[in-house]
Amino acid sequence: MTALSTREGSAANPERTALLRRRVRLLVAFTIGYNLIEGIIALVAGAAADSAALIAFGLDSGVEVLSAAAVAWQFSRFDPERYEKPTLRVIAFAFFALAAYTIISSTLSLIGSADPQPSAVGIALASISVVVMPAVSIIQRRTGRALGSATVVADSKQTLICSLLSGAVLLGLVANALFGWGWADAVAALVIGAFAIREGVEAWNGDTCARPIGELIESRGEPGDAGTDDCC
């Protein structure tokens, strides 16, 4: 069975669709709660250590909350498929905001405007996120593809960005603690910033390897539709 056929089956099965939508709401609730706690800890630890990377990490958690809240709003509507496009726009802006701040803060760090100190709290926080966020992203992506929701798939990419940033922050904090390399996380964050721009453009264009449920329903029974899911 192809990925497209699986999503078509979900769209045609009201019980399966309802189950997937409940899963989306649970994932959104977890993401918002986790990132609120993570963001507060990161901002406090970043301010204490004068760490631009940790402060950026905390702000990224805020962007993740915004993205998740946009999906929560969409799936609180009676007909969430109608709100795919505006929700994708919000997620795209979240990507662009994350990229802009990451690139600016990393550049300032590289030219020596900050002298971050070692942070044991930051290392522990980033280590937890490196484990938790990829798992959440995988579940989000599978749920979004099964539901045929471009916004859920886009939100899974936002979560993946968060996990990549967690890894970059972790490497930078460890390198700074062990070798005094305060620039290491800034270099990795620049790469992530570029990746966030690409993902923002894809979210803006709706290119998220998922098709809205309404479109899937309309395409059922049309010759040549099954098995034509090019990107999944």
Our measurement of the CA-to-CA distance between the termini, rounded to an integer number of angstroms, reads 13 Å
**Main pleated-sheet profile:** none
What quaternary form is this?
Answer: single chain
- How big is the Rg? 19 Å
Short description:
With 232 residues, this protein is mainly alpha-helical.
Question: Can you walk through the features of this model?
Answer:
- There is one protein chain.
- This protein is mostly helical and 232 residues long.
- Helices cover 79% and strands 0% of the residues.
- The chain contains eight helices and no strands.
- Helix 3 runs antiparallel to helix 4.
- It starts with a helix and ends in a 13-residue tail after the last helix.
Question: Layout of SSEs?
Answer:
Blueprint: H1 3-12, H2 14-49, H3 52-74, H4 84-110, H5 120-147, H6 150-179, H7 184-205, H8 213-219
Helix pairs in contact: 1-8, 2-3, 2-5, 3-4, 3-6, 4-6, 4-7, 5-6, 6-7
Throw out a few tags for this protein:
232 residues; mainly alpha; 79% helix; 0% strand; disordered N terminus; disordered C terminus
